[in-house]
Amino acid sequence: MRHVALSGWILAGLMFSAGLLAGCVQEKRRIEPTVVPNILLGPMTIAVAPALNQSGATEFDPSRFADLMASELGQADGIKVIPVSRVLGVLAAQGVDRVESQSHARDVSILLGADAILVFAVTEYDPYDPPRIAISAQLYGSRPFRGSGALDPVALSKETGLASSATGQGPRGLLAESQRVFDASHDSVIEEVKEFAACRGGKVSPYGWRRFLVSQQDYIRFCCHATIRVLLNSGKEAHLADMTRER
Known about the structure:
Blueprint: H1 2-31, E1 44-48, E2 52-53, H2 62-73, E3 79-82, H3 84-93, H4 102-112, E4 116-126, E5 132-141, H5 153-160, E6 173-183, H6 187-198, H7 211-214, H8 216-233, H9 238-246
Parallel strand pairs: 1-3, 1-4, 2-4
Antiparallel strand pairs: 4-5, 5-6
Helix pairs in contact: 2-8
């Protein structure tokens, strides 16, 4: 009898543990931020330009910042990324180290065979806890027409105000933009960081989710991830709602 009772307790314990595990899996799926949805643009190839440092800070490498942006962009659904090194190669051949205008962005993306190019500036950079980073990002290019069911060029022209060509490839212009200050002294930003950390190994660090505040690189990743979500899903006016929500 004692053996039967003990077996019953063990079985109950295993079932309880399985229930907890299932709950964790469901919770992770609920807040899963690893794969960025791509509602606005659809499948396309995007190049990433080196970051423009407009913050006055000297503690970060613009090319490394852009590498992190490209890494996060690579997590987006249906997006192929042309790395920063190839963009730097094209710029070096032109005798410059940055994208200098919208028309220049268009030319560089064409040379790279990209549908679009992501150009962004870091306008504030204070990485110390609580970190504060501001990013202004623009996506220049055109969404490719990939046949029936992929994209309606007429709908595209209505959405963006850009006329579509006969081949379905519209003129290259501003597809989306985002402008936001990621200030970790705000509760709303902390909640986003916690969700991001839940799927990026926050629990394995001695700092827990706070790793994404105390590590400059990890906080930059969070900021890049949030910027890309806006660019791919909300369009030109997304940053207005984003900034209103943060306040």
